[in-house]
Amino acid sequence: MTTLYIRLFSRAAAEQAEPWSTASCAYAVAEDAGGGRLRVAREGQTQLVDLIDVMARARQVVLLLAPSDVTLLQIKVPPMSAARLKVALPNLVEEHLMGAVDECVIVAGAPTAGTRTVAVVQQDWLEKLRALFDNLGARQLQALPSQLCLPWEAGTVSAALMEEGSAIELTLRLGEQAGMGLAIEPASSAEAPAEVLATLDALVPEQAIVLYVRPEQAELYQSAAQAAGWATERLSVQPDDWSRWLVAASQTRLDLMPGLAPSGSTQFNWRPWRWPLVLGGLLVATNVAALNIEWLRLKGEADDLRASLTQIYRTAYPRDTVVVDPVAQMRQKIVAAKGGGQGGPNGFSALTAGFAQAWQQAVPQGQDQAIAALEYREGSLLVRLKPDAPDQAEAVQAALLSQQLALEVTPAEDGSIVWTIRSSL
Question: pLDDT tens digits for 169-191?
Fold first, then answer.
């Protein structure tokens, strides 16, 4: 699989081209040469629409953003986690930017001696580039600052030219993690070399410069440098070579694409809503506090009422040591008193007396041994007869009716007969 590298035009040049996909740019197709090295398989300069087939076959597309569109800053950053750094970056770079920080994509590089290289690019421009290359069929997409992909050696300043129409994009790499760029509008193509050299002299007045130009322009810029009195040790003009860019680009880890929201979603600007959200949060907190205070007050009243009810129950029933629910336990005591001790129609005494009287009336003497057991349960008297007892149910039932009692016959599992006697009122 191959990797497609594209040196992009600046945003200013793109806005003059309609549509952007027709703008011209330099590109190179790189193949793996083994040992972590890349080999240039194809290079040239063409419109983006002509690279659709190449993008479809490429494993990855690497965009080298124009230096005039990316600002590089050296920021002192205290040690912190990646999550905290992402939150703190906008505040750290805000004073170094002229525009609104919430309209930018900000990505920090690895720490070096207590400082980090921070790259800043306009968010809408990066989103437009991503949408454009997505439509062109690009797969994995990276966006690197081109000033950090320019070949560089310690003690020198590297410079490269990229022409777009009549404008010249000048890229400068001032150090390992420092670079810049600007656009030059020469009066004419013949005066372009002299204006480029004058700009370099103004920007880098003392250091040695290595200027990379297109191979066919190398002799032209060397002649212009000699005419302007540049010493050979001060300025070295060399043909631009994509193999050098690939080495520098493979060593650059400052990818700006991860700073964008995932494709298909947008980042909401929370900054204008900060104070409304703060006020809303305070209002919610106040209401929650008021609800908690009211709950505590009602809970105190409930605890006092429960303590009072418990005391009343203990006073009425001092022998009960365990009081779980005083109201429910009081009701049970009242029901038990009514059913067992106050002679109600469903009480044990009333039912037993009525049954005894009915038995004496309906059953002949000498058959008292027919009753096996008596049991009182839930307001009913259960009379269990022996299996060999004669059937006297109808006679007893007739005798019970005069006492307003009802009888229900139920056979038991052991073969005995059970009479259920209860009040018919």
Answer: 888 888 788 888 887 777 777 77
Rounded Cα distance, 51 and 285, in Å: 57
* Cβ 52 vs Cβ 25: under 8 Å: no
**For the chain, which residues score pLDDT lower than 70?**
17-18, 20-22, 36, 165, 262-271, 336-344, 366-368, 425
β-bridge partners, 238: 212
Helix residue spans in 123-236 (DSSP H)? 123-135, 192-203, 218-227
Cα 247 off chain centre by: 37
Query: How does 225-264 read in b/e, with b if 16+ C-beta sit within 10 Å?
Result: beeeebeeeebebbebebebbbebbbebebbbbebbeeee
Pairing of strands 2-7, 24-34: antiparallel
Q: What is the pLDDT of residues 191-207, one digit of tens each?
A: 788 888 888 888 888 88
Kindly list the distances between the CA atom of residue 311 and the CA atoms of 46, 111, 302, 327, 334, in Å, as whole numbers in the listed order: 96, 72, 14, 11, 17
Q: Determine contact, residues 42/26, Cβ cutoff 8 Å.
A: no
Return the bridge partners of 31, or none.
Answer: 39
Rounded Cα distance, 209 and 153, in Å: 10
- What does the mean pLDDT of the chain come to? 81
